[in-house]
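Record format v2
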Amino acid sequence: MSHKKYVHGYTDRESERLTDQAQTLTTFLHDDTHYPAGSRVLEAGCGVGAQTIILAKNNPRAYITSVDISLDSLLQAERMIREEGLANVTFCQGDIFQLPFGHGTFDHIFICFVLEHLAEPQRVLERLRPLLKKGGMITVIEGDHGSAFFHPGSLFAQKAIDCLVRLQRDTGGNALIGRELFPLLSGAGFGEVRVSPRMVYADASRPDLVDDFIKLTFTAMVEGIGNEALDKGMIGREDWDRGIRDLYRTCGKDGVFCYTFFKATGTRT
Amino acid sequence: MSHKKYVHGYTDRESERLTDQAQTLTTFLHDDTHYPAGSRVLEAGCGVGAQTIILAKNNPRAYITSVDISLDSLLQAERMIREEGLANVTFCQGDIFQLPFGHGTFDHIFICFVLEHLAEPQRVLERLRPLLKKGGMITVIEGDHGSAFFHPGSLFAQKAIDCLVRLQRDTGGNALIGRELFPLLSGAGFGEVRVSPRMVYADASRPDLVDDFIKLTFTAMVEGIGNEALDKGMIGREDWDRGIRDLYRTCGKDGVFCYTFFKATGTRT
């Protein structure tokens, strides 16, 4: 898994987009994640640090260990964290299937936008669970591209989104994973699993959200896989262009866009 | 419109289901709808009174006028309200396209699960608007069957839901209307339009919701149009049965079901 190509995450523009996305959704996704002073937190799969910076700022007195398989990503993440003057994060290169930590090391584990890329998400959760102290808690956040619906409706826009879902499936991932967090965490042996869906709803009464989410986050992400989808013959150029145009059209004054993230917690019982 | 057959609403079992549904969703959909003492409220399209009873109980000192085109429905609604000992509702038969009230009669209008059945929902809203006093407010609540997604996924379940969407379209309605409330209210001339999406999320950690919503509300509603969908050749018997079975399967211990209602308000400016 760890050697598979991710659908997104490895270009400069992508890094920017992921950071933008994290800024936009900060309050919405993270404001109820608080770790007490002195607690040891593992961030599993920190990538370029888009979530790390939020965790570190929101929990200045927690000790955060952020791991990723990619040294390049870690270096970017570390640079950003240091530039912000944050000292409470230790970075560590490692494969989340076999992390170099002893059982019962952490009070909390945080894993965000990672499981969607993995062919065996439940197995990752099973591997992470023993790293928690008894009573320790995991927080998982994922999107679900199948949760997207919008007005005006468009089969072409739907097709473009489906290309992203298929590409992610082709590389072993699951772009519809958000809805599965309950069975995944339960199946991995966590107790007291609770899922909190968080819908982004954007219409013309919320122009910032229209810009930040529909344009800069969601549609930018779909657009980003255009060449790959076209190269693989998943869709024709005309349909693709129309799909992207129709996604942007949902930003119009009569447009509406809905997308749901899922945040789940589970306890090592 | 007013003479068209509704997809649902006209059988005893249906009445029961609609009442069940209203009980289940009461808190969730209605708890932030409060009308001050002495205010005059129009409920446009009360049907068998499933929402009327909630409005009347939640707003004991408001004067509620509930209208419907169907005398049978009104009689049922009235009986239920009287049995509950509620005196603050006046029932009145009328076509919501041409109601027998003067301009500026009401402080509030409430219209719930009605627009989905009408071919010209925006025109209804345009007709209702002048009945409000200046500064008066309308509240609209609708579901959106295109917002449903679930785990385990099933193309058959999706097909069964699509039959309901198509039947509603064939009778001039729109089962995907929830997402359109913002443009509909804005287009009808209301100001300060605000939409609040409300997702029902059910998994095994919420067994009551699984029973009440997935089984007794949503799947019961889909099941209710089975004969019609089969008679019209929209789907084969085998696919239908499998679709319904797969919907019930989302009630299992690893199942998840998501559905979104939309509640919108607008002001007569």
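The first helix of chain B runs from residue 12 to 30.
Residues 1-9 of chain B have pLDDT under 50 and may be disordered.
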